[in-house]
Automatic annotation (TrEMBL):
Residues 13-23 have a biased composition (Basic and acidic residues). Residues 92-174 form the Ras-associating domain. Residues 176-223 form the SARAH domain. This is Ras association domain family member 1. The lineage of its organism: Eukaryota, Metazoa, Chordata, Craniata, Vertebrata. Transmembrane segments: none annotated. GO terms for biological process: signal transduction.
């Protein structure tokens, strides 16, 4: 039997017992303001801090969704994702917001809620995405979260240390392929396609050079140029 344990998916819910155990461990190490709460339906609520990189940020401080019906405490919708957004600092279009959300709130919902709340409306505005920032071998590493990934679960699995993991909302104009957002079977299928294309490319190159070698041998057999 394979002893390797696959890490929990950040797009699926944890079993209730596992979630309860991880939340207890997280809360033990985290300040009270960052504690997570397990809900009766097996989901959990909590906070993440997101650094915003906008050219300009709305300087007013008000609860997102004011005057609109809320999606409930930590609801999965975009309004619920941004119910409690608190401005911590602002300089050169950058600020940090604290977001109260549910474990069922997706990265796409968080980014859409933050953009709608703090970015002025513009049909030509660039697409924004939520990134997770980690420290690896003393160097920062950014990875775009897949749309279906759940930031609060990412936070729970990483632990409460903001130096180990933080979130960043910024423009995502590169349209790069986010391989981490695909499942293992999908990645294996991509790998098989790449291997097939590689074999075909190698075959064409070998045929090309084999043809050149034949021409050179024919020229040598004929004595070459006078």
């Amino acid at each position: 039997q394979n002893g390797n344990v696959e890490p929990p998916s950040t797009k699926a819910e944890l079993p209730r017992e596992e979630a309860e155990e991880k939340i207890s461990s997280f809360n033990h190490a985290a300040p009270r303001s960052a504690h997570m709460t397990l809900q009766p339906d097996g989901s959990f609520t909590g906070f993440i801090e997101v650094q915003l990189k906008f050219r300009s940020v709305d300087g007013s401080e008000r609860e997102a969704g004011a005057g609109r019906e809320s999606g409930g405490d930590g609801g999965g919708g975009a309004t619920g994702a941004a119910r409690k957004l608190k401005r911590r600092s602002a300089r050169s279009g950058e600020s940090t917001k604290q977001v109260h959300l549910s474990s069922r709130t997706s990265a796409l919902e968080v980014s859409e809620a933050l953009v709608a709340r703090f970015r002025s409306g513009n049909s030509l505005q660039p697409r924004f995405a939520l990134f997770k920032c980690t420290q690896r071998d003393g160097q920062g590493c950014h990875r775009k979260l897949g749309d279906a990934e759940r930031p609060l679960l990412v936070r729970l699995l990483a632990g409460p240390d903001p130096n180990a993991l933080s979130f960043l909302l910024q423009e995502n104009e590169t349209r790069e392929v986010i391989w981490e957002a695909f499942s293992i079977p999908e990645l294996k299928n991509f790998l098989r396609i790449l291997e097939r294309e590689e074999r075909e490319h190698v075959r064409r190159v070998e045929e090309k050079f084999s043809r050149y070698r034949g021409l050179l041998r024919d020229a040598m057999a004929g004595g070459g140029a006078p």
